[in-house]
Every structure is written in C-alpha cells, then in structure tokens.
C-alpha cells in the first residue's frame, strides 16, 4: 500500500482496475515525471517507480519493470515527453526515440507510439514541444484505455454466446472457462487489458467466468501478474503450468482461449509470448475457439508473413534462475539447473493465422486474414503496399 | 560425492551411466536394504537414501525420491522383497503390493512389476520367499537395463538416418537436435534410460548429438534431472522452458522428438508427463518425427483408449512454489504466485496414437497402433481380449 497509487487515476476517466479496492492505472505522469508500477516486484510487493528521463524509461522497459506491448508503447511516448521537457531539439528527440525503440525488438506498439509522437512533434516549434509531447503522450495512453474498452465489449459478445458448463466431477455451478497465456491484462496496458478486457467485462456483467492462468515461464507473467490482477478484481481463476493447458482442453475444461499479441501481421499471423503457438495447436486439435485480442496498434501493416519478425532472445538466466518469496517474506533468487548448464530463451513465437479463430480489435472481430483486417481497417490495409 | 555410490554398480554388468566419472545405477540392494539416489535433491546434491521396509519404498515413490515409470516398477519389486524378508505370508505380501500400487495411479510399470513379483512368489513356500523375491526383483532390475539397451540400439538406427544440420546464424558444426520432455533417462530407469538410451548410444557412437531439454514444470525433471545426467555423461544439451519447443521446431532447430511414456495403450495412445501432447502437436505441425521410447512393461494391454487412463492430480504447491539453490548454496523454496492463489496440477496428458511417428520398444520400432504393437508382441497382444 502506497499513497502514490491514487495519483494513478484521474477523476472523470472511464472506470479503472482496482488495486486494494482503489482505481489505478499502470502508468501516469505528474508535473515533471512519469510514475509506474514496478512489475518485476509483483505479486509480492507493490512498488511505484519514478522515471525522470527517457533513459529511465528505456531502462524500465528493458528490465521489464513495465512490459506488455500496449504499455511499452505508452511508456515510450512518455519517455519522449521527458526528453522534450529537457531538450526539445530535433536531435535530442530523435536520439531518445532511437534509444527507446532499441529496448525491445518484437512488439510493434513501441514503433507505432514513437512514430505517432514524432508525427505530432515535428510541426511544432521546439519551445512548444514539451506541452505538445505531454498532450500527445496522454492521448496515446487514453486511446489505449478506450481501445481496450472497445475490445472488451466485442469479447463480451463472444463470451455471451458460449454455454457455461459444470466443472468435471463436482457439483459446482456451471462456469465459462477462459484460458489465457502470459499477461495481456490491465498490467500489460494502461488500463483494462486486451485479452482480459473481455474477462473483466464479462465479470462485471455477471457471467460466471473462470480463468485458467498459464504460468508463462520463464518470466511467469501469468503466475505473478495475471493471477495477481484477477485476484485484485475478484475474478475466479486457477494457475496452471504451461504444460497443462492441452490436457484441460482435451478434457473439455476450456471453452475459449484468449491471448494478446506483441505483433500481428497484415495477414493475421500473431507473434506473442513464447508458448502461445502450442496453445493454438491444442485449441485447434480440441475444437476450442482461439481468439487474439489485437488492438490496431499491434498490427504491423508492413509485414504479411510472421516468419519475417525478429524474435527477441533474452538472457539464459531467466531460464536457469527464478525469483520468489521465501518463508519470512524475503525475495530470493534460486538456481533451478545444474551449475553451468546452458540454456536458450526465445521470448516469443509465431501463431500462424490459420490457427486463429478471430482477431478481436477495437473495431470488432476480424477473421485472421488480410481481407478480414482490411475490411475493418481500410485505410491502414490499403496504405501498406 | 558419497562412498555409497560405488555400491550401486556390480562388476560384470553392461556398461552403466557415470556419476562423477564412476558407474552407478539409480537403485540397488545390499544384504538387507535397498539404496536409492534421492532425486528430489538433484541437481544440487547427491544424496543416497536407505530403504528398509516396503513402507519406506512407498514413501520414496510417493515423494518422488524415486520416479520414472520403469524405476518405480523396479523399486516396488524391491519393496516386495523387503516385506518378504520380514513377513513372507500371503497376507503381508498382498498388503505390501496394495500399498505400493496405490502410490502413483498413472504409470503401469508399477502394476506390471507387482504382478510379476506376485506370480513369482505365489508358488514358493513362505520360508523360501525372501530369496525368491530378491532374485525376482534383481531380475526385474536387470531386465530393465537390457530392455533399455535394446531400445537404445533401435533408436540409434533412427538417429543415424537423420542428417545433422548447422545451428542457425553461426559457423558452428552440424549437429543432430533431439528434443525431449521430462526425464526419461538413466534416472527414470535402473540404468541407460528409455528416451535417452538412444541419445547415449548415439553419443557413444560419435554422432554429433545435441539435446534440447524441456524444463518440465512443475517438478522440473528436465532442468534438474535430464540436464544433470546429460552433463554427467558429457552430452551437449541446452535447457529451454516448456513453452519454447514449438518455436524451435518452427525454425527447423529440432530434428526429432523422443520422449518416454508412463502408460501406452494396446492401440498406441501414450500417457506421459503433462505437456507431451503439446510437443507432439507441434512436431506434427512442423513435420518433425515424434518417437516414444516404450518398453513393453509400459504397455497396458487391457486398455485401447488413452482417455480411459486415470490422470494423477498432484498438490497445488508443486505449481505455486519451487525449490532451488540460493546464493551461498542453501536449498530454498520460494512462492511464485500471489498468496492464496488457487492452482491445479494434472501430472500427465494423453498423446493420441495418431500423433506418434513410432513406438521404440525393446523388440524394434512399432507403428503406434494395435496392429503395430501386436506384430512385435503377438502373445501379449492376443492375450488381452
């Protein structure tokens, strides 16, 4: 519990996620700095970090204190604002954008947000750029919230069409079982989430929703972040290891899979957290619908084939070591492998469009295809080639 | 390093796995007790446990100090011997067999070994049962080693037929990339392993073999056990999270998948460590051959359809907590999830026969079908119905 958390939400906005019962965003700006919830400390501690320069923002993205494709887009936008306050010259802004873009190679929202900031600031005389940058970054953050709310409404319609069923071997009441991978929730965005926006909308609407939360090794965004934020909102959920989802689908215990995306191609291929592809295969094999919550900011209109997207390779220590809370409350990192065992750590994988039932965008649900996306986004779809 | 480990291997046997350069089995009997390598302490410590009663053996199986379908079969056989030493009456032996059978519900080797012990002891007058039981248990252990050696030879022929290839983006020499899930190695058996028997045979034969080691949450048998035993034998390997295998297959970095099995049906369905099904789906989607090393002791001739097999549900704490080695060397358990987060923990899943390229048995490689298995095992295949 920290007082700062109430700064996170300004009155008059659309309703927000709660932390300890109070509304809060994942990122917000004060007069002269940006504040974030440090996601590397969750679920064990609620820590607010203050970022004063674009370098601070780049470090927060690189170390995954902020993560999630939509949120790193918004964070980068605020990073440009921090630079514009200190040095609004073209050179300084370009250098900041370059440094921010280099933090994570896979998610396209980062490029999208930085291009939006550049477009907004280029015509503005340097002395007015700080104000313009703040307004533009706030716009990007607010737009993320509005987009996620729209995605949530479209996802709610899909969930309403499913039939709740009884859990196996028990007299428990029927429920709707959603499986999700990684964290594409409130914490991956400015507010509401993408994949979880529909879950929250359904929960708010009184649907008997229950979420299977993939742990999501190696960084455990599911076990640490998704479980935490679902718990904060009171949404019933169960954590499972990444290996278990296929078995649950075989047994009829998953009604729908909904995940986020770090980059969606113009033809509907989805690059998302490593392991997503395996769940998409199991969903196809078991006849379970597989949806991807894809805000248009995640769509890379310049690429058709997901195999052309660079997959970030992260540190081996993310595989060989893990941090958690020891008895007594201390955060402890332990090694899981024999000393010196080599490890590889690709962070994303490719789910081909053929495995995706639909892309849930802010404009509605599109088939995962060039035609499907172009029908909802005619301008972007045409601009590309 | 413990002196006891050299007791583990008797001269004159087929060549064994090495621990710190010395041959060692995973289980062995002295005059009056059974000794095991405590697998819950690996890879961080080499601890030998002494088991004096069938209850000790049952506890070791239940807590997974010994695990792996073939090894728990052999351990149960030695448990019957310990009972026969103390009380060779029918009642005592039946009670011991019942208690041992109840330790783990999924693997069929346990039932197979206990039935073999019962068949061997029933005609023997009680005063001679201790000696007969010891001989029968030794036979089961030795037979496991011989079976695994034969599986290794058949697997070697399959591996020889593959073309080694260069790793992506490097001038490294070509290698043969095997992906395996869980631990179906030396540690899962009395010696040599099932899935890894072929890897060891290939390594001994000078093939440039490299193993992708699935971590295998929640109990990390891959990261803790497979990586350790491959390291002990000097086989090149890389640990990956369970989520990463599909991506590696998409990128052409896996030439073959080889896993073990806890129970194989007469029609070739495979129940193995949870997550195996996901790898089989990815292998099928990427055109990678998917083999299951299946000693005949793992085949349940009474069942055709894998959906009829009980899947063990283990403790939620295996998901929410993990143990590892902290800086300084202490073994520490840490919590990964928010306090009170619910978790589910199915331990196995079903890989349908249609996804299995072949079953590597001690008699050769069979298509995963009733006909394929019956051709290699005509007696067992016919006896069933």
Question: How is the topology of this model organized?
Answer:
The structure is a homodimer of 385-residue chains.
Chain A: E1 18-19, E2 22-23, E3 27-29, E4 34-37, E5 48-51, H1 54-62, H2 69-86, H3 90-101, H4 109-121, H5 126-160, E6 176-180, H6 195-204, E7 209-214, H7 221-233, E8 237-240, H8 245-250, E9 256-259, E10 263-265, E11 270-273, H9 276-286, E12 290-293, E13 299-300, H10 317-320, E14 321-326, E15 331-335, E16 348-351, E17 358-361, E18 364-366, H11 370-376, H12 378-383
Parallel strand pairs in A: 6-7, 6-9, 7-8, 9-12, 10-13, 12-17
Antiparallel strand pairs in A: 1-2, 3-4, 4-5, 10-11, 11-16, 14-15, 17-18
Helix pairs in contact in A: 1-2, 2-3, 2-4, 2-5, 3-4, 4-5, 5-6
* Helix/strand structural class of chain A: alpha/beta
Any idea what the shape of chain A is?
globular
CATH superfamily of the largest domain in chain A: Translation initiation factor eif-2b, domain 2
The third-level CATH topology of the largest domain in chain A is Rossmann fold
How many domains in all of chain A?
A: 2
- Tell me the major beta sheet of chain A: 7 strands, mixed
Structure description:
2 copies of one chain form a homodimer. The first copy, chain A, is an alpha/beta fold and 385 residues long. The first copy, chain A, folds into 2 domains: 2-142, translation initiation factor eif-2b, domain 1 (Four Helix Bundle (Hemerythrin (Met), subunit A), Up-down Bundle), CATH 1.20.120; 173-384, Translation initiation factor eif-2b, domain 2 (Rossmann fold), CATH 3.40.50.10470. Helix content of chain A is 37%, strand content 18%. Chain A is globular. The N and C termini of chain A lie far apart (50 Å). Chains A and B meet through helix 7, strand 8, helix 8, helix 9 and strand 14 of A and helix 7, strand 8, helix 8, helix 9 and strand 14 of B.
